[in-house]
Amino acid sequence: MSGTLIPLFGKQRFDFTWLSANASQSIVIHPAVNVLTYYNMRLQMRFHGCSGGALVGTQTVILSAYGTGPSGEDPAEFTKGTALMSVTLNNSSTIPSLNTATATDPDGYLKIVLTFTQTGTGGTAFWVELSADLIARAP
User: Would the pTM of this model clear 0.85, i.e. be above it?
Assistant: First the structure.
């Protein structure tokens, strides 16, 4: 079985302290990672650190991979509404930790999205240090 490690992003700090109570913000990390020749996928996110040493209340960080099919014939985004796989960090996540999700039979391309949700108290310190990879294996 052959495969590859696709780096999504190196250790990076994301600060979403400015989010209001219960608000969410999403960032597209990669609009279309080519996984056409692979069948087994593992999404992995490393949790390096965060404000206060732990996420609080309902603060969450979700790394998701969505099937997508870009087209040179139409600039519209053709992305599925449900994630193929997701990794979630919340107030029970420990530092340091490696968090993973797996899937099989992906679409030809994957859209990688990070979503941050603030706790019920707006303005609560909310920064995290993360890194992530996609492990892709051929059948």
Answer: yes
Per-run averaged pLDDT (10 residues), the chain, 139 residues: 91 95 96 95 97 91 94 79 96 96 95 95 90 95
Phi, psi torsion values for 53, nearest 5 degrees: 85, -5
Q: What is the CATH number of the domain that holds 116?
A: 2.60.120.660
Q: Rounded CA gap, 46 and 37, in Å?
A: 25
Domains of the chain: total: 1
Question: Which domain range does residue 32 map to?
Answer: 3-137
pLDDT of residue 79: 86
The sheet with strand 24-34 has its strands ordered as 24-34, 109-117, 60-68, 85-89
Q: DSSP letters along the chain, please?
A: --EEEEEEEEEEEEE-TTPPTT-EEEEEEEEEEE-TT--EEEEEEEEEEEGGGS--TT-EEEEEEEEE--BTTB-S--B-SS-SEEEEE-TT--SSEEEEEEEES--SEEEEEEEEE--SSTT---EEEEEEEEEEE--
**Closest C-alpha to 35, from 106, 133, 84:** 106
